[in-house]
Write a structure and sequence with these properties.
This protein has 276 residues and is mainly alpha-helical. The longest helix has 36 residues. The protein has 13 helices and no strands. The chain has one domain: MetI-like (MetI-like fold, Orthogonal Bundle).
Length: 276
């Protein structure tokens, strides 16, 4: 019994140390955002602020217009997640559950999208968006984000669908449900863990993306949060505490979304592990 308690104590210490290592960067970012340049470069980079500069947040919101960039990021990322979930769920259902010629070939073609690097598509996408007059608009970001998010999303949902018994669809069909009704009432609620995983992956890739946002959008009114924070770096002087405040504002939604959807993601991973 003592040996078991000893091992359990070591495990708890290890997990506590691991949690501190994971949480400390967030704590450091918060304290960083409440300092001025004098304190940051004066040897107090890691400690608590000597003077709490709440005005860093006021300046980030007022002068740097972080809330405007924040709204643009929310709009672009939210629409991207919705479109990716709808398209990937219907495509995965058609490929995984319906019987039709060429469905495996279509799946392989979709998965080829995972092999295309963003850098290789940057110039072709710019030329296409320019010819369609979509540069400097929300669609200039939503369309590429959706295209690059679909392959992984289709793969995740299709893998999850493979673990769902077909008897559920057969029973619904016997009750008179059509394909759309079966998908909406039976299948869609069952794949919520996979949809949560897709939502988090799509959110992270879209919310933190910088290359497309810098290349396809130059007008101030359409810039996203990553571009807005980057523009806060001045040519001669930079208010690092104000940038830290902007980073805190950009980080908060990520933490909230993960806390809300983490259980669904874990369930999705467990289902995949059991199936494997």
């Amino acid at each position: 019994m003592r040996k078991k308690n000893w091992k359990s104590g070591i495990l708890h210490i290890f997990l506590l140390a691991f949690a501190v290592v994971q949480i400390y960067p967030l704590f450091w970012l918060l304290t960083f955002s409440l300092k001025d340049n004098v304190e940051i470069f004066g040897g107090n980079i890691a400690g608590l602020p000597h003077k709490w500069k709440i005005e860093n947040y006021e300046n980030a919101i007022g002068e740097a217009k972080v809330l405007s960039y924040f709204f643009n990021s929310v709009l672009v990322t939210g629409l991207t997640i919705i479109i990716v979930i709808i398209f990937s769920a219907t495509a995965a259902y058609a490929i995984q559950r319906m019987i039709w010629k060429g469905r495996q070939a279509v799946m392989k073609i979709i998965l080829l999208g995972l092999m295309i690097p963003i850098h290789a598509a940057l110039l072709p996408l710019f030329m296409i968006l320019k010819s369609l007059h979509l540069l400097n608009s929300y669609f200039a970001l939503i369309i590429p984000y959706t295209a690059f998010g679909l392959p992984m999303a289709v793969y995740i949902i299709a893998s999850f669908l493979a673990s769902i018994p077909r008897e559920l669809e057969e029973a619904a069909a016997i009750d008179g449900c059509g394909t759309i009704r079966i998908f909406g009432s039976v299948i869609f609620p069952l794949v919520k863990p996979a949809l949560a995983t897709v939502a988090i992956f799509t959110y992270i890739s879209s919310w933190n993306e910088l290359m497309f946002a810098v290349t396809f959008v130059s007008k101030q009114q359409y810039k996203t949060l990553t571009v807005g924070i980057m523009s806060m770096v001045g040519a001669y002087t930079t208010k690092w505490g104000q940038i830290g405040a902007g980073l805190v504002i950009a980080t908060i939604p990520t933490i909230i979304i993960y806390l809300l959807l983490s259980d669904q993601v874990q369930k999705s991973l467990v289902e995949g592990a059991v199936k494997g």
